[in-house]
Amino acid sequence: MRRLFGSKNKKIDRILNKAKAAYDDKDYEVAFNLFSQAASMQSPEAQYWLGMCYLNGYGVILNLNDAALWHEAAAEAGWVDSAYMLALLYMRGIPEVKKVSGQNIFDKPDVDYDNLKPDWDKSRHWAKYAAEQDLAEAQALYAYLISHETKDPEIITQALEWYDKSISHDSSQGYMGKGLLLLRLGESEADYAEAAKFLEVAAERKMGSALHKLGVMYETGRGVPTNYKRAAELYKEAAELGIRDAQALYGVALKKGQGVEQNFIQAETWLRKAALAGDIEAAVVLADMNGHGNDDIPPNFTEAARWYVVAAEKGHIAATRALGVLYLRGMGVPKSLERAVELLGFAAKKGDVVAIVSMGEIAIQLPESNLQIDNVIEEYLTPGAEQGFAVIMFNLAVALLHSNSLNPDFEKEKQAREWLKKCCKEVIPARYWYGRMLLQGTGGEQDTDKGYAWISSAAHEGIIDAQMLWANILLEGNSNDGSALAEEAVKFYKMAADQGSVPAMFSLGAVYGGGNHLEPDREKAQEWFRKAAEKGHPKAQMMLGRYLARGLAGTKDLDQARYWLQLALKSGEVDAEIDLKQIDDPSLRDKISEIKNTDFETKSGTAENQSMDTKKEAEKNPGKVEVAPGLFFVKKK
């Protein structure tokens, strides 16, 4: 222990020896009483120890104000260690004691520990005092205090000199401080490598901040070779020492399985510790994990909502938006369109792109939201589109078309077409809508060739509506080789069917049924009609019933035919009633097989006629896109 002078009073020394022995034995009440006795005799050393008792709550109630008072008394008497402790206390902030008029002297003082205000001037004063007395830890502290918010070359030079003095005493704080300063000021790999040398020494001595920062360096490959395993090891050591940021980073490493074996349970444990300590990003990751679930644990939307609330209350925009989506869907929280609009609107006004998209889609798809589409266009979508966000340009175009369907206005059609043109290279669904507008001459001149090109592009990129429309166009095409176009159309119908499109399944049944430049294949036709029928497609149910009643695919099954025709009739296909009568009337049953296939096909409808339903539906509800998902629903490519 460093001091300018020691005690020359033997009585004080005897008391101090007994006090320190009791302190070492953790008999803190005895130690406190003895230190108090010696301190009252003006012993700086006793005042130091009394300050430490108040600082740690040993033998007395923890009280930072009293700790500061005793350390200041000792420091002013020349006790260097108290000067150092006083510098730390002022750097952290000493709480104000709220005085209450008429307060009983025995009442516990009302101390505000949540709003500590550092006093940097006093902290620097006492740190410098102790540093000039050659106290290594104080030299490192003073170097930090003068340099932590500046890049002034003169001050940085002074700070480095103080760090070097501290390092000359082999101070772990000195090694860590210099490493962190060099890392902050570094501009090249050589600078970062130099910083790493000092941080390595501090990390070996289990300095938490050094372990954390060095871990980041190994993860990013800055100043050291990239080494995820080493980074995870350093994060773990720092996390176990209570470094909040390291707890979050170790949790993420465990979640990803990066440098360490993947372990979702441990990942959640460490992320929870960081989140409870105030790390907002950790709270968001924790929410995402619960929203996603994993192979072993299903999603827990209630827990996800809890952590999104924590982050949203701190102003985290993405968390606010994700919480809004949960309210919109009633996942983990009561379903509330009003609350969803409030949260998504807040995030949208802060510039969150997904929230802006969601606001537009809610206004289009959910009229009960009371969001006026023209207001959403003006307040959210147009500003976002003008900033160059392609997905918002697309949604703006869709919103304009929707608004135009309510209040026809050529200017809105023109604007929609212009926005689609701007974003169609980046937003694949926009290619379909832009192509359709070109084909129809909506919002400008008709351009069939370009319209075909954009629709074909969207179809090749997997847009179901574009695949259906492109297949229709191919079937309608005037060519000497109609069968080749039909085969190409079948390819796109299959693409759409593979994505779950029930109309595409029906269209395939109709194409294979004949009358579309292809040789009929009744077995394939019945197979596709069955797939669509099982998905609830009324016309497919009727067609499957007819096929089974007539045995067109080789097998006649009147019971199954009756089953499917009855389903079709219940769904509104009135023509199915005639087929049912033919099955149930013995006088008509034998005549069923005599009906010519050509007549049958004419009644069944072709893929071209049926798939036009998709086009009509799209025209009624342009841009029908699912509401933009929250954080944990986003699938990154």
From TrEMBL:
Gene3D superfamilies: Tetratricopeptide repeat domain. Residues 613-622 have a biased composition (Basic and acidic residues). Residues 603-612 have a biased composition (Polar residues). Residues 594-622 are annotated as: Disordered. This is TPR repeat (TPR) (PDB:1KLX).
